[in-house]
Design goal:
Number of strands: 11
Number of helices: 0
Shape: globular
Strand content: over 45%
Structural class: mainly beta
Length: 128
């Protein structure tokens, strides 16, 4: 599975951004990415990578880190093989490189992904 994250940039405190993660898997049939749970992690300078959000294959189960609940919304369009992260009310502490991930294992807030595929990351910078 190949993942391509995009949509990062520089935004002021309180602003919004929408990240996208385009997925493809040449070894499988069309729309097979729907068989994967997908999610977002982020890594700030000098910190460990942390879980942000994830959703199940059909998007019916969604998980969020406490730090982003009520501000971030995850969604996916399996027909287009794209996952989104709508980020509102951004704060300076949201500044990080954001990575998308896909895994066949069911999503959860810890211990996931089990054996996932990672995108290259997109930088989000929130100025104060």
């Amino acid at each position: 599975v190949q993942l391509q994250a995009s949509g990062g940039g520089l935004v002021q405190t309180g602003g919004s951004l929408r990240l996208s993660c385009a997925a493809s898997d040449r070894s499988l049939h069309e729309n097979a990415i729907a068989e994967y749970a997908m999610g977002w992690f982020r890594q700030a300078p000098g910190k460990e990578r942390e879980f942000i959000s994830a959703l199940s294959w059909v998007g019916s189960q969604k998980y969020y880190a406490d730090s982003v609940k009520g501000r971030f919304t995850i969604s996916r369009d399996n027909a287009k093989n794209i996952m989104y992260l709508q980020m509102n009310s951004l704060r300076p502490e949201d500044t990080a490189v954001y990575y998308c991930v896909a895994d066949r294992a069911p999503p959860r807030t810890t211990g996931w992904p089990v054996d996932g595929y990672w995108g290259q990351g997109t930088l989000v910078t929130v100025s104060s």
